[in-house]
Queue: 2 jobs
Job 1
Amino acid sequence: MNPQLSRRRFIKTVIASSVAAASHNSFPVAKAHHVGDGYVDRLITIIVNGKKRRVDVMPQETLAYTLRYKLGLTGTKIGCNRGECGACTVLIDDVTNYSCSTLTHSVRTRNVTTVEGVQSDDGSLHPVQQAFVDELSPQCGFCTPGQVMSAVALLRENPNPTREEARQALSGNICRCGAYDHYLNGVMRAAGQRS
Amino acid sequence: MASYDVMPDVGLFQPATVDDALRLADRFLDEGWLLGGGQDTYGWLKDRAKNPKALIDISHIDELRGIRKTDNGVDIGAATTLREIIGDASIGRDYSLLVDAARRVASPQIRNVGTLGGNLVQDTRCWYYRRGLACYRAGGNICYADGPQAMNREHSVFGASRCVAVSPSDTATALVALDATMTIRSADSSRTLPAERFFVGPATHITRMTALEPGEMLTAVTIPPTWAGKRFYFEKVADRNVWDFALVSIAAAMSLDGDAVADARLVCGGVACTPHRLKGVERAVRGKTLSDETADAVAPLATKGAKPLNYNHFKLPLIENLVRRALRG
């Protein structure tokens, strides 16, 4: 048997060539584009939690997909995948966004912060996270990363919010357990208005 | 029809200038899709109910962003986010009607990225249409929302023609009330339209909701100084306070001469395929003092000629009550 053509090498080659064929066929627009007309490159750098990450991104890829399945940041949850539930909320330049409804290509020059990026350098929880623990805010916990990000964004912009302002700030995050008041208790505790 | 939860294969362009974007729009025409904040777009794509070949992302183009005071009023770039409009001090001072409307759009996260242009040109929420059914609006020859068993609680009471879908935009009502002007560009031309004529009903164009032709782009909105700092009223009634679209909304701009109304523009959202001006009320209220009596006297004019469907009769008293609230002293 030819040592250059082991079974493993043969299978690898077949997979690689079919992947190349598939990606070639699936982007008819890409074939037609001219250099310089703004068609996006696949290999890009994005800044996530202060670190530059090189990643291969499809043109239509959402940020939630990139974070979870390419960068392994699975703290960001995908709930509805339609911009209707808020579980995928991340900060882009300190502003809350639904990462399921954001194209990864649109955040190239901006700072993305996920729930993995809010703890302090020594690993202790962000005041909002600690307050959510202390107030038993989450019930099932699936919406919690999104609630944390909305609360973090609020307190960065307005460190001393009223309960009504907190309610408005978290209004884009659904909690199907209905633990809204517990989350609001957590936000008010993180803002030092509840002990 | 199956619903998918992931994005389909689609090309993505991020042109650096408006001219580049317009060249792309001209190249792809019906197969291109101008992308602002994308909050209306991705649902269409994920459902495979619309299948453009190329997304043309215009949200980063500097020329399309920002709020500028000019001699003709205020220019707002089409890619300016609703968050930026809500936070702008001069718009808040002179045209608080627009801020009040923008504040009620969807949810905080959506307002953070959603653009004014996107909010204005977003497609209707008729669920039969959005499900991808071949209705009149989708190029077919039936309306699923206007039948004996159709669920049409959210649909129109004015101006239906085969299609009974309604305009979903909150900012559109405010901009029609403020008599704004839309600037529209294509690869080789430029034109302006009053907001009222920018939105078109099914009798004019059944497959689209605005006057935009394929290859054209809404680039800016100009609010004239006519109504700066006048008396405004905005209210939106929806089943939920967040995310939800208006069952009925009202945007009113009124100039007063002493106690009496000198001029007024009242516009309802959620009741017709376009923002619906209440011209009968506007005429009747001129010269009158804002009061409960005036409001009660003119409110019934708001629903003259309305043709409710099976499940949306409730919109008629709702319209009249919103008019009353706009006009009482």
Job 2
Amino acid sequence: MKKILMKGNDAVAEAAIQAGCDLYFGYPITPQTEISEYLSLRMPEEGKVFFQAESEIASIYMVYGAAAAGKRVMTSSSGPGISLKQEGISYLASAELPAVIVNMSRGGPGLGNIQPSQSDYFQAVKGGGHGDYKVIVLGPSTVQELVDLTYLAFYLADKYRNPVIILGDGMLGQMMEPVVFNKPDFPPLPAKDWAITGKDGRERQYILCFDLDPRGLEQFNNKIFKKYQKIEQEEIRYEVFGEDKPEMLLVGYGTVARILKSVVREAKDLGIRLALLRPITLYPFPSAIIQKLAQQAGRVFDVEMNMGQMVEDVKLAVNGAVPVHFYGRSGGMIPSVEDTLKRIRDILGK
Amino acid sequence: MHVETMVAGFGGQGILFLGRVLATAGMIDGYHVSWFPSYGPEMRGGTANCVVIISDQEIGSTISDHPNVCIVMNEPSLRRYAPTVRPGGLLVVNSSLITQKYHDSKIQILEVPGNDIAGDEIGDPRTLNMVILGALIGYHSTVKEESIRQALEEILQGKKSKLIDINMKAFTAGKNSILRKVTE
């Protein structure tokens, strides 16, 4: 397969088409508008639907409708736009509807700015909208991984009848890297016999996002939490990079993980042994491996492009066994290799 | 090999295109590459820059605080980025627009009258970016010249393919200007 140099946003869009996305509903916002732009050209070519909605809220309910009809569907936005979609994402989770939502996040809070940020971590992994629910969250680190995780997102959404968020950032969306489009062969999925496709002789069926009976709603919540438990058992993905027997375990995802790989290499030249644990699934979170590697290393250093969000999950995983240090840049600032390494050397006294 | 190249200038000077050609050529040569632009509320005449990294190992950070190579197409870019060049690195200056002399004994400085060559020799001022890229590759062959042509063929497809020849002509003119300089 031929490698092509492609922008992250364009690559997600192309991968969605190849993954069989039937409909895309979007509303523009920097730094992800190229996804819409690309799909506005390519979806009609494929005989698929591209639609620019009148707002983010409208677009997420169009996603709801298309998913209820059994179609593969995607929307994308960035920070403020994803906030507007949260009510609909909660409804999707409650109706157990598969959908893929891309967030190329930007500096916040508020309108913030358009530079890369990871400050939507909490919003993505802790639910984001109201009510008890979880969304599968994938954290790509390269343009190639944006492609690979887009294929995976559509598969997992259908497998679990659950929304999946691809949590990128402005840097991943805007940068170009070589990519190969190589769609994996996923195991077969069950038929969408729950979809609302017109009664046509079969029993009448509903897709609901409410239950007025508290006993019924509690039962439903128990049921979806069993599903989340299965997701936590079966779908954790991560990468370990760097040295055996490290003096410190680094934890970072997405763009930060790339910077931490450079840090691991530069530290090695200085005789400092580091290893990186990079969560690929942010929900389900790779807690067990973090706990294990943290205990071996004796010290953890978590780096993020926010004021400290994933570090809470890292601390829960480590459960007080070893010290967990944090370094974050926010507002669209990106931690440099130099600064990160300096902090590590200060902690290690080297 | 690990070369971090900063390309900076005005919007409209073909900064992002230059970077894309360089990155594509690096990919064709079999290296890991990345291209990261300044993005957002940019406009023609405003500032534009991009960082291209070409490396024989997986690329970590796609930004560069201390590039090995820095191309500056205007004075604001010279002031901002020239001091960031890594010692032992190379600064390529578009001397048609930058009259200010920059001195730093720890780096090499290559002056190329980019706009003059693009305007007088090629007859199309829009080819400034390829003149400058030609000068860079003539001096410091990060990527193969034939890969530049292939990169242009990949990027300029369909109706735009008629622009490949003039871009190559500008590239060659830029390269020759450096070869002349080195011979002198």
